[in-house]
Structures are given as structure tokens and as C-alpha cells.
Design the sequence.
């Protein structure tokens, strides 16, 4: 049999992930099956299992790719911003915009299905924990950059603030998804959290706009 190059295998893996993303967006995580993925990709059972052993593995690979892309965008925003605080304000603006449209994004629904149905799954719990720790580490890194530059003088440990930020982010997203952005009062929630961050981080300069 002809040897398949690594470049071809990676290309095929990416094609499978792109097709799987369409399936998950259309059907959600729970209802989707490996057969759906085979139908979408045109791959045989053996061809699909050559790259992924389960639907969960496919979805985790998608989440990893999206997480890496999102963190890359966040780092770019930090580099472009005149100060760390202004970067944080931009992150909050993005959070508010996403919370307002969360019900229109099927990715959020399938992601919530993945987390909630995996509470008793050791592999998914371990994956979720690792992603959480990565997010905490990134936010902590951003805050420490502000401290080193003399732009932030936090009254709480950066690790605690990072976890607080993630708790607010996830809570706002889930509530907006379940109850709608108007019922959740997204804008007032984000404005209140911004004031809390000002009190906690004590940025040297910030805009009241």
C-alpha cells in the first residue's frame, strides 16, 4: 500500500473537524452521532476512527482549536491596546456582545451539552479541568503584565481575580442562554462587573465612558 504523508493526514483530519463542526452546529452535541460525522465527511467507519476514537474526541479537538484561536486573538488585542486596563475593557465589551447574541449561536448550545452531560465522565472532566486551568493561567498572565507595568494595583491576588472573571463570564453566558439577554440584564451586569474590577484592580487610568 502507498505510504500516506503526514501532510495528507493532517489535511484529512482538518477536513473531518470542519465537517464535524457543521454537524454539531446543526444537531447539537447530544443528538449527533459518529454516523452523522461519517455521512458529513464521506469517510468510512475505519477512515473516521483512524483519526478519532469517539464523538467526544472529535468535539474536544474542536474545542482545543477554538480555544487556541480565541487566546491568540486575546493576545493580539493585548498587544494592540495602549494599556492592560484598556485591553480588559475590550474583553468586557466582547463578552457583552457575545452574551447578547448567545441564543443565536448554536456553538454555545452544543458546548453546554458537552459540559453538562460529561459531569460523570472522567475523561471529559479532566479535559474541562485542564481547559479551565489554561484560561486561569492566561488571565493571570494578563493581570501580572499590568502589575509589572505599574498599570494595576490589585487588592486581590491575580489568581483569585482570574477565577472570578471566569465565573462571571460563564454565569452570564449560561443565564443569557437560558433566560435571554433582556431578562439577564446583560448590559447592567457587565457595567456592574466593570466597576467591581475597577475597585479590585485599581487601574492607574481608566475611561468612565
Sequence:
Amino acid at each position: 500500500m502507498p505510504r500516506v504523508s503526514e501532510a495528507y493526514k493532517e489535511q484529512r483530519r482538518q477536513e473531518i473537524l470542519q465537517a464535524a463542526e457543521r454537524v454539531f452546529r446543526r444537531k447539537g452535541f447530544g443528538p449527533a452521532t459518529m454516523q452523522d460525522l461519517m455521512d458529513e465527511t464521506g469517510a468510512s467507519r475505519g477512515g473516521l476512527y483512524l483519526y478519532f476514537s469517539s464523538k467526544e474526541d472529535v468535539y474536544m479537538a474542536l474545542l482545543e482549536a477554538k480555544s487556541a484561536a480565541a487566546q491568540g486573538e486575546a493576545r493580539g488585542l493585548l498587544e494592540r491596546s495602549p494599556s492592560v486596563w484598556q485591553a480588559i475593557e475590550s474583553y468586557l465589551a466582547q463578552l457583552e456582545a457575545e452574551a447578547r447574541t448567545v441564543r443565536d449561536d448554536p456553538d454555545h448550545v452544543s458546548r453546554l451539552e458537552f459540559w453538562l452531560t460529561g459531569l460523570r465522565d472522567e475523561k471529559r472532566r479532566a479535559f474541562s479541568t485542564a481547559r479551565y486551568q489554561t484560561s486561569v493561567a492566561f488571565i493571570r498572565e494578563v493581570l501580572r503584565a499590568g502589575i509589572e507595568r505599574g498599570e494595576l494595583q490589585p487588592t486581590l491576588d491575580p489568581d483569585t481575580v482570574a477565577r472570578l472573571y471566569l465565573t462571571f463570564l460563564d454565569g452570564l453566558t449560561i443565564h443569557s442562554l437560558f433566560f435571554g439577554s433582556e431578562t439577564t440584564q446583560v448590559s447592567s451586569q457587565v457595567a456592574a462587573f466593570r466597576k467591581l474590577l475597577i475597585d479590585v484592580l485599581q487601574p492607574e487610568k481608566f475611561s468612565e465612558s
